[in-house]
């Protein structure tokens, strides 16, 4: 096994005659560990404004440092807008998902994709030793998978053409 950086900067572990395997930790190393959050008593309007300002689709809901929920654009659309609620008066606690699915930083991208597909999720908070250390989105995972595949194709093309190069 060797570790290499792909063209888009993801660190992959490549097994000889095997597939590249990126884990959540590698994505966080590339994109950063910034997680935007709100409190359960914050107003939905403020949460949606924060999502728009930070260009994110989800916020982790924290009580101190403990994850108590997640609120997404989907929660807003279904539980505020479509129900005729007023976002300046509605609390995050009223619309957030309380059963938050989290992953550890050593989970593979394939495992995360399977989990997100099965649970119909678009965002996965990442925890390590009980602490929130980042968040990955479906877009992050897709970008990583595409990068891994492009890298593998490039390596196979070099191998087939005889242009072996040490990485």
Structure description:
This protein is 38% helix and 23% strand. The protein contains five helices and eight strands; from the N terminus they run E-E-E-H-E-H-E-E-H-H-E-E-H. The protein has helices spanning 24-31, 44-54, 73-81, 109-119, 138-161; strands at residues 2-5, 11-14, 20-21, 37-38, 58-63, 66-72, 123-128, 131-137. The strands form three sheets. Strands 1-2-3 form a three-stranded antiparallel sheet. It has a three-stranded mixed sheet with strand order 4-5-6. A hairpin with a 2-residue loop joins strand 7 (123-128) and strand 8 (131-137). It is elongated. The protein starts with a strand and ends in a 6-residue tail after the last helix.
Can you list the strand order of the major beta sheet?
A: 1-2-3
Structural class: alpha+beta
Strand and helix order:
EEEHEHEEHHEEH
Largest sheet: 3 strands, antiparallel
Q: What's the end-to-end separation, in Å?
A: 12 Å
* Helical residues, percent: 25-40%
User: So how many helices?
Assistant: 5
Strand coverage percent: 15-25%
Low-confidence stretches: 14-18
Q: Shape from CA axes?
A: elongated
What is the residue-averaged pLDDT? 87
Secondary-structure blueprint:
Elements: E1 2-5, E2 11-14, E3 20-21, H1 24-31, E4 37-38, H2 44-54, E5 58-63, E6 66-72, H3 73-81, H4 109-119, E7 123-128, E8 131-137, H5 138-161
Parallel strand pairs: 4-5
Antiparallel strand pairs: 1-2, 2-3, 5-6, 7-8
Helix pairs in contact: 4-5
């Amino acid at each position: 096994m060797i570790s290499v950086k792909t063209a888009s900067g993801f660190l992959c572990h490549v097994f000889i005659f095997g597939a590249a395997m990126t884990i959540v930790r590698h994505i966080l190393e590339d994109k950063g560990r910034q997680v935007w959050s709100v409190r359960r008593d914050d107003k939905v309007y403020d949460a949606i404004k924060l999502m728009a300002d930070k260009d994110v689709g989800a916020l982790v809901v924290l009580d101190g440092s403990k994850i108590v929920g997640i609120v997404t654009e989907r929660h807003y659309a279904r539980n505020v807008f479509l129900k005729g609620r007023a976002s300046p008066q509605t609390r995050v606690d009223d619309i957030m998902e309380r059963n938050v699915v989290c992953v550890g930083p050593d989970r593979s991208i394939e495992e995360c994709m399977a989990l997100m597909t099965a649970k119909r999720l678009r965002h996965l908070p990442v925890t390590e030793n009980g602490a929130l250390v980042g968040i990955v989105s479906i877009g992050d995972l897709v970008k990583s998978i595409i990068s891994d595949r492009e890298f593998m194709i490039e390596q196979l093309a070099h191998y087939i053409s005889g242009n072996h190069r040490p990485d």
